[in-house]
């Protein structure tokens, strides 16, 4: 019984592949991440949930904090999934990666002007930056990673500088930030890479036109690397079918399943040597921050408080 906050058409092929291989049926319950977490809590020890799949380490951490996930030890998972994208005790495992990049207006910005997240606090960007709200877990995780790299004080200082530079109060999702750059409302914006790729690959001509006006940089290439986050899964503490749940996670780390799992949202597979979606090949060598994804969760409360103090709404 799979509780998933992912809803990509390609995921169905994954579940069918697993059933074909193992004879184990997959019952899918879809919902928004926080609702699924609440639902498992409400169901208590009678919860039918075996596996929880969600995006962002910050959300996996919330599930873990709520005591909903159990430690799993599996040689297959430990061998195939790099240590930095799984929980140290096996409470969750990253299955694909998303990078938080900086989109810029090609006609107004030279990519050499913006090589780090830290640059966003530079006064040269005054009135030129779009970013979504601090309530968004992607930004919380980015800030959590910066706390790990630079400390609380320097990160708060940075956040104040960023807020000073905003072109408008935070609003909308990542796609809206890209559209605002294309429309000239701002010159740079912070977004997860797949929102840009969706526009690039869109069947809608207008959306492709938006993508053509901008490009994306992955910052901090000369330092710790670009901030990466994960889609991942954990075995629920009350899982009635624990063995099947582990078998399912192991299946998701096979090369075939990894390719499909990542393809659904133009993400990067976590297992080495898995073929990328062609559009992602240009970024195959991007250096990513190897901070353990668990830190993103551990630093989350501090990140939220810091963003509030800095006036990031
Ligand atoms: Fe997203």
Describe this structure in words.
With about 325 residues, the protein is α/β, with parallel strands linked by helices. The protein is built from 13 helices and nine strands. The chain has helices at about 10-20, 35-45, 55-65, 75-80, 135-150, 150-165, 175-180, 195-200, 205-215, 240-250, 255-265, 295-300, 300-310; strands at about 1-5, 30, 50-55, 95-105, 130, 190, 215, 230-235, 270. Strands 1, 2, 3, 4, 5, 6, 7, 8 and 9 form a nine-stranded mixed beta sheet that branches. Helix 1 links the parallel strand 1 and strand 2. About 50% of the residues are buried. Bound molecules: fe (iii) ion (FE).
Query: What is the helical fraction, as a range of percent?
Result: 40-55%
Query: Per the principal axes of the C-alpha atoms, what is the gross shape?
Result: globular
Strand residue content: 5-15%
Whole-angstrom Rg: 19 Å
Structural class by SSE content:
alpha/beta
List the bound ligands: fe (iii) ion
SS field, number of helical segments: 13
Q: Topology as H/E string?
A: EHEHEHHEEHHHEHHEEHHEHH
> How far is the N terminus from the C terminus?
37 Å
Task: Characterize the largest beta sheet: strand count, sense, and whether it forms a barrel.
Answer: 9 strands, mixed
Mean pLDDT equals 96
Counting DSSP E segments of at least 2 residues, the number of strands comes to 9
Unreliable segments (pLDDT under 50, ≥5 consecutive)?
Answer: none
